[in-house]
# Entry
Amino acid sequence: MKRLMDALGEDGIDDFGRMQLEALAGGEEGSEDEDESEEEGETEGAGAGEEGEESGEESGEDEEEEGDDDEKEDDEEVDQDDKTQAEVALDDAESVDEDAVPRQKVVVDNKIALDRILDTIKLDPKIPWTETLVVTYPETIDVDVEDDLTRELAFYKQALHSANAARKLADQHKLPFTRPSDYFAEMVKSDSHMERIRQRLLDEGAAIKKSEDKRKEREGKKFGKQVQLEKLRERERSKKEMEDRLKGLKRKRKDGVDFPDAHDDDAFDVAVEEAVEGRPSKKSKNGAKISRTKRDAKFGFGGKGRRSKQNTKQSTEQFNYGSRKGTGGKAGKAKRPGKGRRMALRK
Amino acid sequence: MNDLEVLLPHVKKDSKLDSKSQLHLLPELADLHNCNNTLYLEARRHEDLYMWAAKTPNGPSIKLHVQNIHTMDELKMTGNCLKGSRGIVSFDKGFDESEWGRLTKEVFTHIFGVPLSARRAKPFIDHILSFSILDNKIWFRNFQIVEKDPLQPNGPPQTSLIEIGPRFVLTPIRIFEGAFNGATVYSNPEFITPTAVRSAHRREKGDKYKMRKEDQAERNERREARRREEDELAVHKVFA
# Structure
């Protein structure tokens, strides 16, 4: 108590306050009962005098631990009102009394004070729902905390239920809910961010597909032997088919011996080729020959002759070289790419 | 934590507060900005984040510990919503079952509920902020409300949700009666400070080391005690 008085003396408390504190602390030391905290708080408040509205809070003080928070408060408010000083007094008194008791965490759950505070800040129940948009989910969430999937599902369910309820309420209050499809405005996440998200989704999909393919391949290897057998059988079958076709052709050929013009080798070869390839040739047999000019264009003809590049009398007399070199180059057709590039293109 | 600011169109952001010890400046700051609710995020030791949710100037204020933060920047959350649309605030029933829960609910209603007349608010609702109590902690999620089924765009409207983020978990520590000061009216008995957790962890590790060292010393002692004195018939004596 002496210590307290010294501390307070430094702060320059008036005599009246000191008297009060003394009286208070004395009463406090006498009855250290925690049960009657509320009434006690009332009397203290009355004793401290002016602050009528703060009377309720005193009840919390005597069960309060002397933790960091209190220290801080003390530092901050030491110069303020009587109430704070009363608090200090109580704490000090307590510490004097319970000197030997080891410090332990004291749980504060002052329900009365909580209720009172709630009452003071509570919004007017008459204000329309549209002001707050608060929805309460009628169930408690009671799932295993460690189980991520069920936990998130529970949250999702809560949000979904609330969304539906809010939708109904919004309809009741004629509050626009859904955004029309032609309403564009700035979004929370930028377009570039959403693009990145999309890209990541695609990448994930690709990765999953890849791994699945790999797995399939691995499984396929298990059945490799069967596959090999299958292939062999397939090869055999195709060989047999080919032989059949050739046989058929031979039979036809035998039949065709009677014809006088059947002896030319080309016709036979073509037929064999056709049979092997399994498809008829494109060339129509009775079609007319392509014209001379077309054939020349396609295959080339004998050539212009040796002297076509020699100077003639006319060309000797012409001197217009420049026109050939200067402007002709640009208008010429695209250069043929080099061999290496052509080969690369072919692949 | 810019995410919270983006989600709440009626918010006024202030620059960093210089000193963590002078919390009484905050109500003044709030007063300067004509605010009656304050969210103050306090980072300590570069790893712990605390959040104060307070009604200024008369209180109460709630101190919470923030954990498991996933911000909107993460690519896993694919939802998106209008910037400044008013979100629905959803609480589960757990809030109504305890006094501190009711008080927290009321304060969060004030802070996270966007008023109808907020200047930057947009007139539609397309996301929902959900608070749930589980394991004595408050879990925060933010979902986009999608009314159409993307698979059948002309079908009946089917509400589904896509998470936008952020998500975090709040552990209430204390509720104070004033704004950033005043008497404690509630303190969470289950809350252990992260520093305590870490130091306990370290101590456990140290204990393990100590145990090992003790065992080693004991073993050596035993070995010394059981050593036999040199024998007459030792190998190197017989075959010298």
